[in-house]
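Q: Please design a sequence for this.
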């Protein structure tokens, strides 16, 4: 399928999820993440210091990342959150602390008002939001390109982990050269390695 078709399909699928289903599926994804240490390659996920995590846009019925925040805090990881600049399609990154204050932007994205800057080359692992993904690790987001730009700025060894309520599509037909593939994707029932 094409990205445009996938966006329509998966936005509709999300819209049909109840709050209880979103919570249960989000918890299942977090539990899958905890299982990620079965091989030497998988163990690299937990060897980093700085972990970038998107904050849930409730209005888009996204995965509740609060469970993952708790896992990262329990592992004494530095959690990084972002603020979007819609003029440049860039993102600035801040350390999440007990003092971090948030405000929703015009797209209902919770963003830090202030905080300690984290250089993009410090980030070891990125949890990537998405609407759909395929068996090769390609993803479909909302179409603005924020994450493709951000991921292209990360160091080559940064681990990219997608989070999805739904399983993989076979193939996304219109992948572009600017699209950055993921290393992993976690769903409530599967762990994909690319």
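A: Design:
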């Amino acid at each position: 399928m094409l990205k445009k078709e996938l966006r329509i399909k998966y936005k509709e699928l999300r819209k049909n999820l109840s709050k209880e289903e979103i919570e249960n599926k989000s918890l299942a994804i977090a539990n899958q993440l905890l299982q990620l240490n079965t091989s030497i390659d998988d163990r690299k996920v937990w060897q980093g210091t700085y972990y970038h995590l998107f904050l849930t846009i409730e209005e888009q019925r996204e995965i509740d990342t609060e469970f993952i925040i708790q896992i990262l805090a329990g592992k004494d990881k530095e959690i990084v959150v972002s603020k979007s600049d819609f003029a440049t399609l860039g993102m600035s990154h801040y350390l999440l602390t007990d003092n971090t204050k948030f405000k929703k932007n015009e797209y209902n994205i919770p963003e830090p008002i202030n905080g300690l800057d984290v250089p993009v080359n410090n980030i070891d692992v990125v949890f990537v939001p998405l609407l759909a993904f395929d068996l090769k690790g390609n993803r479909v987001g909302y179409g603005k390109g924020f994450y493709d730009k951000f991921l292209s700025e990360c160091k080559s060894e940064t681990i990219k982990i997608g989070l999805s309520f739904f399983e993989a599509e076979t193939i996304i037909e219109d992948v572009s050269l600017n699209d950055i593939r993921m290393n992993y994707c976690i769903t409530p029932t599967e762990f994909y390695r690319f």
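Q: Thanks. Anything notable?
A: DSSP finds five helices and eleven strands in the chain. Residues 84 and 91 are 5 Å apart (CA to CA).
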